[in-house]
Amino acid sequence: MKYMLVKTYAKAAYCDTPVHEWAPEDIAAHIDFQRTLGEQLAAAGELVDAQGLAGPDQALIVSGDGRSAPVVTDGPFPETKEFLAGYWIVDVDSAERAVEIAAQASAAPGPGGKPIGEHIEVRPIMSAPAAE
Amino acid sequence: MNRAPNTEDLLRALAPQVLGVLVRRFGDFDLAEDAVQDALLAAATQWDTEGPPANPRGWLIQVAQRRMADAVRAEVARRRRETAVFVREVPVEAAHRDDTLDLYFLCCHPDLPPTGAIALTLRAVGGLRTEEIAAAFLVPESTMAQRISRTKKRLAEMNEPFADGAADTARLSAVLRVLYVIFTEGHTSSSGAGLRRADLSTEAIRLTRALQALLPENTEVSGLLALMLLTDARRGARTGPHGELVPLTEQDRSRWDRTQITEGLRLLTAAMSAGLTGPYLLQAAIAGLHADAARVSDTDWARILQLYTMIERLGPNPMVTLNRAVATAMVHGSAAGLALTDTVAEPLARSHRLPAVRGHLHEMAGDQAAALAEYRRAATQTASTPERDYLLLRAARLRTNGVTGASSEVDARTSIE
Q1: Min Cα separation A58/chain B (Å)
Q2: CB atoms within 10 A of CB B370
Q3: Rounded to two decimals, what is the model's pTM?
Q4: Which overall architecture, per CATH, does domain B317-417 show?
Q5: Cβ separation of B242 and A32 shorter than 8 Å?
Q6: Organism's domain of life (chain B) (predicted)?
Q7: Which residues in chain B are contacts of A54 at CB distance < 8 A?
Q8: At residue B409, what are phi and psi to the nearest 5 degrees?
Q9: Is the pLDDT of residue B102 over 70?
Q10: Predicted ipTM of the assembly
């Protein structure tokens, strides 16, 4: 079963301080945590893909009617806190395991090494019905 | 299959040459590739039991050509007469010219989209499997297979894709650009999943080295090879214990690869004896000056500034101007450097490199608030995770420690795209 674990710019549950105001060693620890988590998931054969997305000010919105030139704008976007920041796609045995991974990711260390409690959305990826 | 490693090496070296001969003669990339695969397979099984033939290249060409002719005959009946001519031809004259060069020109044809040219070069000249190329660029294998076959189709539709003569200089510069892009991809992307056989930088160096052996007199080819070697020599020192980027000025120079530096400098010196021309040779000269400095403070910034000015004279390029701004700051002070960055604010509005460099220059000038603002802007604009991490950390350290004399050095990655 594949799940997408979605990360937004929403405020974390236990941390109000934005990352660019953390102490250098806390940032370094956070980066280490993310890297290690990725390696663990890859080693367990559960990682399909993980990507961080560039920030809102790099984003564009495109709409087209299929005939004329598409309309490209830099908005409107949802509020920053709802804005997609990145995702993991994992292939796991059960929904419980997906939640477990999300919980682990959510507990990434913040200022003083305390878990920040990031809000992580868990979404099953739809698939074609199994072939007979 | 239990092949002796020397057969494998031999086949890998010969494959692009044989493919070059066939594509050049018959013009059909797809068919030629299949035929070469067949010939390689036959060779792999036969040579191990019977030993390689006296002329392995001729052997492969002959076998591949026969397969090719078979395929053509079977597929296109109306081309039967031409086919007979192909089969009669003896591959002796082919040995006089190394068709690998033609293969480079073909795969890097300026009319091909760069992504296609890169994939085709790695596959046809480098002998990498589609699966390996896909892994290097982090795309599914089927995507890469489609990209390659689309590119081959584009080639098949072209008139005289091999035409040379006056166009050769343009063709060569397209080849160099593709090789440089392959190198840069390997050099900058530090994503975990890499090539299984070799990483892209190593592969780019190998291909450029092979090209340099074909064109030893061409100073731009030598310049590019020197540039790659001198840049790659710093690889081990470019990242810290947490995988974070370490700027040139803060790198532990004892970890630079001296063998690569020596080779790079040797190539550079030889090529420069004919004069200092061409963007790659000039860039290599800059990399050479960095490599030559035992300590950051020994860096000959005045000479580097001069070299960037020369590169800029070859053609205006905002990225080069940005690098010149860094050198200017090192020679004439941060204010002069910052003033120069203003001139490229517009073309580089969406590039994170501009605020990153400005951040460094403000930090150098002691303006902490301005430096922080620029670093933060750069961090939100970059699409590279290690670079974002580096910028976040840099800003955080600046906030905690304040401006220090020791951190007043700058590194803008050079680029001549």
Answers
A1: 7
A2: 16
A3: 0.77
A4: Alpha Horseshoe (1.25)
A5: yes
A6: Bacteria
A7: 380-383
A8: -120, 160
A9: yes
A10: 0.76
